[in-house]
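To: structure desk
From: M.T.
Subject: fold request, one chain
Message: Could you run this one when you get a chance? Sequence is below, nothing fancy, just the single chain.
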Amino acid sequence: MSGMLSALCGHYYKLKLKLYKRDDRFKELFDNVLKFKQNHQISELDDILNSRNEAYNAYDKTLITYEKVKETEDRIVQLLKMLGVRPNWIMMGEVKGEMEYEVWYDENDKVGIIKTKDLEPEPEEGHFVYFKAPLLDDEYNVIADDDTDD
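Reply: Done. Structure tokens follow.
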């Protein structure tokens, strides 16, 4: 089980990745919004409105993710300062079975985090593999399985 700061740093890294993806998606949709060109068909106007709505929705999702990143960043900085960690002090952490990372904050209270190594996933406990046995007749002879019940 990881501690609070380790969990926050791992969460922060994943949120940053999500933010980059959402921002890229918004930019793509925004750059490709359909334009009004004296269209006369209602269906064309509907397409334009749908295109704009997709861009607006993507922008909203990006803003929400940005706020989550900022809240997590503020919490990380608060905890590090509470512990007496000074700016630009690089610390190393690990998300078990995923990655190792380095994290720090600067004089402007901005958190930096980089993945330094991918880790092999840890084997999960409690997984079983089940095999389907062929049918047996009364004398324990194998009866051919016709695979019709799969």
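Reply (cont.): DSSP finds two helices and three strands in the chain. Let me know if you need anything else for the meeting.
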